[in-house]
Design a protein that fits this description.
alpha/beta, Aspartate Aminotransferase, domain 2, 3 domains, seven-stranded mixed sheet, binds pyridoxal-5'-phosphate
């Protein structure tokens, strides 16, 4: 029997209009008792000019209508609680609920960054604890939790590398970035003012040492390595790469967003890494996507420690051991944010690390690697595998075997939706034409992985038998194919009366 009938059968899904279209009849969602104190005009209480005279089109709906409207809308969303979300590079793992409970504790959830340090010691302890845990995990010297996204962490680290070279009176202008790096890497380097030079990968998907030797001049400030890279492959020459780069005065930046493949197994500090960012919201579990709050912690070696952004957390040597923010760091790159990092993400990350414990950290990496390789083994005969080097936490396949039926990676991804799966990442990394980048993460069980394999195999069979079904997929969603370029470039995000 097809998985189409067992896993993702049709279910009740309301044809929900916009809330503005439900609106009417002067309904409202609350009822207050009659006022029994003298009424003051609003204009007296709200400073001049701030009060809106009218509010055109404000929805008039009852509590029941509001509740049902948003509950129905929520059923249109695919989510990690509903099924596997194999979006390569994004690490869409299940987020344990205990993290949410911790982040919602009143003392954490209602803390304010301008609160006196005296009354914020608990929150500061959380930050300190997480910093210590990340130093153990990364094997580096110091860490900042201020950056609020992976790309923000990259920029922070690159600015530190830049400050380091400037402090040595050197004006290195180039950043080397492999063609298998994450797209944010060249963007961050360019944003920090560097000229980005692409480092070609070899046939094993790793840094080509001869190419590095040729490009690594005294104008190169550093090399940005995504490890494992976006092919899901560990940089096997990392020791040689870091030796060569350091010998010629450069620094190694590691994009550690894929750290769920390494936690408990490998400490980047021992590979010669000078700076790395971690995606707290990927590796250490926070619901993410859609631009929600993140955490881009940056860990650095001794060389870069003086350049950390301010404020830096320090424990007093006095008996009370109080924690305090320190601003007087003469070589610091300065503030990278008005306040500190996203505190809720920090609480979740610490909760996740403590609840897994050290053996659990290692199991994360082991399971992430086993799951990706299980999928690779079961799919590699059917789908083309462009790089055969051992994979870590994700595997990149391509649509080459299906292309002769006129089907491409987008069609395959769209058809997966009909089978009840979120599509994998497509057309990335750019060095693989027709890429399907699959990251199952450590969260999945064997049954879910088997169903994903079955869906992929059924889709492959469809390519030969009825490719038109794939070309017009998905068929079971409320809308099918969007004009994605227009949706991204000219989004209409606001309803107007
Ligand atoms: C997700 C990711 C990033 C960027 O992180 P954001 O939080 O989205 O800015 C950078 N590098 C890699 C390898 C990633 O997977």
């Amino acid at each position: 029997m097809s998985l189409l009938d067992t896993r993702a059968a049709e279910h009740l899904c309301f044809n929900e209009p916009l809330i503005f279209e439900i609106s009417g009849g002067g309904r409202q969602g609350f009822a207050l008792p009659a006022i029994d104190v003298p009424e003051r005009p609003l204009a007296e209480m709200v400073p001049g000019g701030r009060l809106r005279e009218t509010l055109e089109g404000f929805p008039e709906v009852s509590e029941v209508q509001v509740m049902r409207h948003y509950t129905r809308l929520s059923t249109w969303n695919y989510n990690i609680e509903a099924g596997m979300y194999p979006l390569g590079s994004c690490t869409m793992k299940y987020n344990p609920r205990v993290n949410e409970q911790m982040a919602r504790l009143k003392g954490f959830a209602t803390a304010h960054p301008l609160q006196e340090e005296e009354v914020s010691q608990g929150c500061l302890e959380v930050i300190d604890e997480l910093q210590k845990a990340l130093l153990v995990i990364t094997g580096l010297q110091a860490v900042t939790l201020h950056p609020v996204a992976g790309a923000h962490g990259e920029l922070t680290a690159i600015l530190m590398i830049c400050a380091y070279h400037q402090s040595n009176g050197s004006a290195r202008k180039v950043m080397l970035v492999p063609d298998s790096a994450h797209g944010t890497n060249p963007a961050s380097a360019a944003y920090a003012g560097y000229e980005v030079v692409t480092l070609r990968s070899n046939e094993r998907g790793c840094v080509d040492l001869q190419e590095l030797d040729r490009l690594m001049t005294d104008m190169v400030a550093g090399v940005m390595l995504t490890i494992p890279n976006t092919l899901g492959i560990f940089e096997e020459n990392i020791r040689e790469v870091s030796r060569l780069v350091h010998d010629r005065g450069g620094l190694i930046y590691m994009d550690g967003a894929n750290m769920n493949a390494l936690v408990g197994l490998v400490r980047p500090g021992e590979m010669g890494v000078d700076a790395l960012h971690l995606n707290l919201h990927k590796t250490f579990s926070t619901p993410h996507g859609g631009g929600g709050p993140g955490g881009g912690a940056v860990a650095v070696s001794k060389t870069l420690q003086p350049f950390l952004p301010v404020p830096v957390l320090e424990r007093s040597a006095e008996a009370d051991g109080r924690l305090a923010w320190r601003e007087d760091m003469p070589q610091s790159i300065g503030r990278i944010r008005a306040f500190q990092g996203n505190f809720g993400v920090i609480v979740r990350a610490l909760s996740y690390i403590l609840s897994c414990g050290a053996p659990g950290m290692r199991e994360i990496a082991e399971a992430a690697i086993v799951h990706a390789n299980y999928l690779r083994k079961r799919l590699e005969g059917t789908f083309h595998l462009p790089f055969a080097a051992p994979h870590m936490h994700e595997v990149v396949l391509s649509d080459r075997n299906q292309a002769s039926c006129g089907v491409n990676n987008i069609d395959i991804a769209k058809r997966l939706i009909d089978f009840g799966f979120h599509p994998p990442t497509v057309s990335f990394p750019l060095i693989v034409p027709g890429a399907l980048m699959i990251e199952p993460t450590e969260s999945e069980n064997r049954e879910e992985l088997d169903q994903f394999v079955q869906a992929m195999l059924e889709i492959d069979a469809e390519c030969r038998q009825k490719p038109e079904v794939l070309k017009s997929a998905p068929h079971r969603t409320r809308r099918s194919r969007f004009d994605e370029a227009t949706a991204a470039r000219k989004p209409e995000l606001r309803w107007a009366p």
